[in-house]
């Protein structure tokens, strides 16, 4: 059996991040999730972290490393937001907030996590993107731009740190039923469903399974990849 991994998942207090956290923990790995307020979910270790703030990220990772008893092997940069709106009406604030959280937040976490990984000479940086990053989505210019930029981030990290046993990959889920997607109007959900070859939305555990594979030793030679978990929605993109 493989040695337990030290795993940190941002935004692991709910939604897809929580499912990913539970999947690693159930497999015997050491897990810390980040959350912004309140208590961590039952049975999970948590640290407070605001990914738009570098000091908060750096402090949270130091506390997480103490809790884990060593450097982080696996970063899952999952925290993300939407601020949807049509291009002409999208405010600077809504554009900036999404880029700052989804893209710059992932960058801040990867930068901090890489310190320990370089010392370890191993590591897995996993960005949770979205099918709409490469497919595009009307009303989500900010979100789609933030998610496609994670590909450039992962590929640059791959080129920079690939020789040190560190991989950086992007997981691109399709539509998953969580708080984030609960906000979408029913008719829009029906339109999305009609375009999905699998004929259904994803279960969050299907995203977690792909993340766990990319974190495993079996995936040591996969880096800079975009792994779809989208029922075929984004095929060819
Ligand atoms: P949720 O809205 O359910 O959860 C989002 C998580 O991100 C929460 O834990 C939230 O913390 C955290 N978060 C948001 N902003 C910040 C911040 N500034 N600092 C720290 N943490 C923050 O989202 P999902 O579970 O649906 O999505 C998780 C990821 O998967 C996101 O990156 C999303 O873009 C992506 N994704 C989701 C899809 C879906 O269909 N649901 C499809 C494709 C990708 P808090 O609880 O404090 O708000």
Quick synopsis:
With 237 residues, the chain is of the alpha/beta class. It is built from 8 helices and 7 strands; from the N terminus they run βαββαβαβααβαααβ. The mean pLDDT is 96.
Commentary on this structure:
- The protein has a 7-stranded parallel β-sheet, with helices on both faces.
- It is an alpha/beta fold and 237 residues long.
- It has helices at 15-26, 54-68, 92-120, 131-135, 141-161, 179-182, 186-194, 204-215, and strands at 6-9, 30-35, 45-48, 74-77, 123-128, 166-173, 226-229.
- Bound molecules: NADPH dihydro-nicotinamide-adenine-dinucleotide phosphate (NDP).
- NADPH dihydro-nicotinamide-adenine-dinucleotide phosphate binds next to helix 1, helix 3 and helix 6.
Topology:
Elements: E1 6-9, H1 15-26, E2 30-35, E3 45-48, H2 54-68, E4 74-77, H3 92-120, E5 123-128, H4 131-135, H5 141-161, E6 166-173, H6 179-182, H7 186-194, H8 204-215, E7 226-229
Parallel strand pairs: 1-2, 1-4, 2-3, 4-5, 5-6, 6-7
Helix pairs in contact: 1-8, 2-3, 3-5
This protein binds NADPH dihydro-nicotinamide-adenine-dinucleotide phosphate.
NADPH dihydro-nicotinamide-adenine-dinucleotide phosphate binds at residues 10-11, 13-17, 35-37, 49-52, 78-81, 101, 105, 128, 130, 173, 175-176, 178-181.
Strand order of the largest sheet: 3-2-1-4-5-6-7
**Through-space gap between termini:** 36 Å
Shape: globular
The number of helical segments is: 8
Poorly predicted segments: none
Could you tell me the strand content as a percent range?
A: 15-25%
């Amino acid at each position: 059996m493989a040695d337990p991994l030290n795993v940190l998942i941002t935004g692991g207090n709910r939604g897809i991040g929580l499912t990913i956290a539970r999947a690693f923990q159930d497999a015997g790995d050491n897990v810390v999730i980040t959350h912004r307020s309140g208590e961590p979910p039952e049975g999970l270790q948590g640290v407070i972290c605001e990914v738009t703030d570098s000091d908060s990220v750096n402090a949270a990772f130091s506390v997480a490393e103490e809790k884990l008893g060593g450097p982080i092997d696996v970063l899952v940069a999952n925290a993300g937001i939407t601020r949807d709106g049509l291009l002409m009406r999208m405010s600077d604030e809504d554009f900036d907030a999404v880029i700052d959280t989804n893209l710059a937040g992932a960058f801040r976490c990867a930068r901090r996590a890489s310190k320990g990984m370089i010392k370890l000479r191993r590591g897995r940086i996993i960005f949770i993107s979205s099918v709409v990053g490469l497919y595009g989505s009307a009303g989500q210019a900010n979100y789609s731009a933030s998610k496609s930029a994670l590909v450039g981030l992962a590929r640059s990290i791959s080129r920079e740190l690939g020789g040190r046993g560190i991989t950086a990959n992007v997981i691109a889920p399709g539509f998953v039923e969580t708080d984030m997607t609960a906000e979408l109007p029913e008719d829009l959900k029906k339109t999305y469903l009609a375009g999905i070859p699998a004929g259904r939305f994803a279960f969050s555990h299907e995203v977690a399974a792909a993340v766990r594979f990319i974190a495993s030793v079996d995936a040591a030679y996969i880096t800079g990849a975009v792994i779809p978990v989208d029922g075929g929605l984004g095929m060819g993109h």
